[in-house]
Specification:
About 35% of the residues lie in helices and about 25% in strands. By secondary structure, the protein is an alpha+beta fold. The strands form two sheets. The chain has a seven-stranded antiparallel sheet. Bound molecules: flavin mononucleotide (FMN). Flavin mononucleotide binds near residues 28, 114, 169, 170 and 172.
Length: about 200
C-alpha cells in the first residue's frame, strides 16, 4: 500500500496559545473545500508527532511513555492525495494507506449518523492498543489510555483553531462497527472520531 511522506510541521505560528484556547469550539459543519497536505501534516503532528528526536517523545503526554494511541485519517478531499484510510507513522512523519476509497459513509452509519462525519474532507480516528500500557500498569491502564485520548484530541482542537480548521470530538459510536470500518486488529479500540474541515462561518 501507498506511503506519503508528509511535509515538515511548522513550529511557529501567528496565533497565540491564549487565542486558541479562547476560540476553541466544537464545529460540526465545514466548507466544501479541500485541506492541503501541509494542513493534514500539521494536524497529525499535533496529535502524535515526535517533538523530541532523542527520546522519541511526542506532542501529547503518555503514561510511562507507553504510547498506546494510534491515529488514522479517512481522507476524501486533500489536494493530490487518493481517497482512503491512512495510518499516521509518527516515526517518519508519513501516512501509510491501509484501505482504499471513501469510507466516510460507513463510519457515519456506525456513529449514530452524525452529519459532521460525512461533511468533512478529512476524518481523524484516535485508537488505542491498551495492552501496551497494561503491560506496565495493569488494571490502571484503561484510565490512563482514556486520559491520553483526551490529550491527543485537545491538541488537535487547538491546532485546528490556529489553522482555521474546525473539529468536534465524537464519542458516540458503535465500537465494533468503527473497528470493522477501519479493519483494526483485535486489541485495538477506537476512542474518538474527529471530523476536520475548514470552518464554515
Ligand atoms: C467525551 C465526549 C464525547 C462527545 N461526543 C460527541 C458526539 O458524539 N457528537 C458531537 O457532536 N459532539 C460530541 N462531543 C462534543 C460536545 O458536545 C461539546 O464539547 C460540548 O457541547 C461543548 O461544546 P464546545 O466543545 O464547543 O465547548 C463530545 C465531547 C466529549 C468530551
Amino acid at each position: 500500500m501507498e506511503t506519503i511522506t508528509l511535509p515538515q510541521p511548522a513550529l511557529t505560528g501567528d496565533v497565540s496559545i491564549e487565542e486558541t484556547l479562547q476560540q476553541r469550539r466544537s464545529i460540526r459543519e465545514y466548507k466544501d473545500v479541500p485541506l492541503s497536505l501541509q494542513e493534514v501534516a500539521q494536524l497529525a503532528w499535533a496529535a502524535q508527532g515526535i517533538s523530541d528526536e532523542a527520546s522519541g517523545f511526542r506532542t501529547a503526554p503518555s503514561a510511562g511513555a507507553t504510547f498506546p494511541t494510534e491515529v488514522y485519517l479517512l481522507i476524501t478531499d486533500v489536494e493530490d492525495v487518493a481517497d482512503g484510510v491512512y495510518r499516521y507513522n509518527y516515526d517518519d512523519h508519513s501516512l501509510e494507506k491501509t484501505i482504499d476509497g471513501d469510507r466516510r459513509r460507513e463510519l457515519y452509519d456506525v456513529a449514530l449518523r452524525q452529519p459532521s462525519i460525512t461533511d468533512a474532507p478529512v476524518v481523524m480516528v484516535i485508537t488505542a492498543v491498551v495492552a501496551r500500557t497494561e503491560q506496565r500498569y495493569g488494571e490502571r491502564a484503561l484510565r490512563y489510555v482514556y486520559m491520553e485520548a483526551g490529550h491527543v484530541a485537545q491538541n488537535v482542537y487547538l491546532q485546528g483553531v490556529a489553522l482555521d480548521i474546525g473539529t468536534v470530538v465524537v464519542g458516540a459510536f458503535d465500537d465494533h462497527g468503527v473497528a470493522d470500518v477501519l479493519q483494526l486488529d483485535d486489541g485495538e479500540h477506537p476512542l474518538y472520531i474527529m471530523p476536520l474541515g475548514k470552518k464554515n462561518y
